[in-house]
Fold these 2 entries.
Entry 1:
Amino acid sequence: MPVIKAQPFGFPFETKSLGLVMIDFQRDFVEPGGFGETLGNDVSQLRAAIPAAQRLLSAFRNAGLPVFHTRECHRPDLSDLPPSKRNRGAPKLRIGDIGPMGRILIAGEPGADIIPELYPAPGEVVIDKPGKGAFFATEFGDHLVSRGLQHLVFAGVTTEVCVQTTMREANDRGYDCLLATDATQSYFPQFKAATVDMIVAQGGIVGWATDVDRIVEALNG
Ligand code: TIU
């Protein structure tokens, strides 16, 4: 079995059961005027993950391996948006309000779409999810099962919110999870560092972590 150099130790995988999960690389999180900025964040920080995420995406595409993209967004009638989420905090604009990229975090609006740099290719599965985890209220888990996947590589934003939640959901469902550390970013550098640490702590209690070069190296075999 091939092994990717990683923390806390090598990540063994089978190519036929390996997939890439690109979490929420949406304009609403990465570009000015979207959800991330309405929460008071400096969204430019997230752009640091884009070059490594592009290399990771290309490596999976070149290897002919499955790629999944997720988008955090809600139905236009807000029927899948609980008040506990809509009313949280004191943002300038709330989910569903009209911003410069359309309605904030609403399916089909320009802001909810994936950034052009990492746009899904034809045939790649795109999962719209109302929660932070990609398994909650979606068909994501069914896609993984139907393709016989077991080993998942994760990239995306933000590290400690939707990426970590989805990795924990996947871990509980029996998947081996590897975080691509340079292809993920947080608005809070200390939260990203803590998340990587807590994923690999205790012998990989949630999963493994490594950088994109190590993953590409292993895929090129
Ligand atoms: N606010 C924040 O850091 N993240 C989110 O709200 N969603 C995702 O992480 N995608």
Entry 2:
Amino acid sequence: MAGSTILPMLSEFDLIQEYFQRPHHATRAALGIGDDCALIAPTPGLQTAISSDMLVEGRHFFAGEDPLRLGHKALAVNLSDLAAMGARPVGFTLALALPAADRAWLQGFSQGLFALADAFNIELIGGDTTKGPLNICITVLGELRPDQALRRSAARPGDDIWISGTLGDARLALAGYRLELPQPLDAASQRAAAVRMHTPVPRVELGVLLAEQGIAHAAIDISDGLIGDLGHILKRSGVGATLDVDALPAGAILATQDLALRRAYTAAGGDDYELCFTAPASARTAVLAAAGSVATPVTRVGTIDAAAGLRLVDAHGAALDLRLSSFDHFTS
Ligand code: ADP
Ligand code: MG
């Protein structure tokens, strides 16, 4: 129809071809999008690391969220799991339920997704697309040498506990959106904190180095809050820990807030996507050198103990009773 601005309806297959299939981008897959399965030629001698993470509208992000940021975050949280295992990313699949084939949304989403994929030189190799409530599930594939995985079960008494980057700004942004803060943030601070919530940077280079150089013992990425995620390492390793809460590196905006908020959101914030890892005290120089070589700040925040339980202490070593808990989707 002359003058019409209505675009032709997108079919499922047009949509995949237009927004997700990039014929000139094949790097690792022997066969990418378009057949019943993708085919990957594994690197001889390496193990494959596989992980999935799902983002659900209304649960992990607000309705109406900017699609570009969603594309970034959906892949970033998955790459963060590879980082925590010490695996090099290879490729990923995307299972997508969409309420409508909206071109503007698909354009933004695929742009955010592929910008991060290209930054790590990884390829979208397949997926599934259906109509439904907005739900984004990515599965990432990575590779690593056998015996180099940074398992949750590998922490040993006497290990140092380290954190990459800073914690708590994502949680601070969420509290700001929810009007939960005693003193609301000014608009610039809210925006700056929200960058950490919407566009986390997965610590892939650091995780890979810690694994490949045999520096770290155990690692986990911090998605549900440090205390809860460190708790997984402690449980699986059969150990305890002492955590210096006041040594936890606060995000730039959280650092301007009062002590109680800093303690709460660094220790049990969530959505940080930093690495928490353990390494023997003899590896301190190696940890700092590895982190420096990939321009990732790291901070030593505690020690693994033989005695079970997590002891929170302040800057003077005095016990803190913070009654903090981590995020749980079925109880929160
Ligand atoms: P099948 O019917 O066998 O499940 P589909 O028709 O769902 O296959 O998908 C056709 C091809 O497009 C497959 O290669 C599949 O991996 C790919 N694909 C479907 N959805 C996506 C998506 N969201 N992102 C990337 N590839 C996709
Ligand atoms: Mg399918």
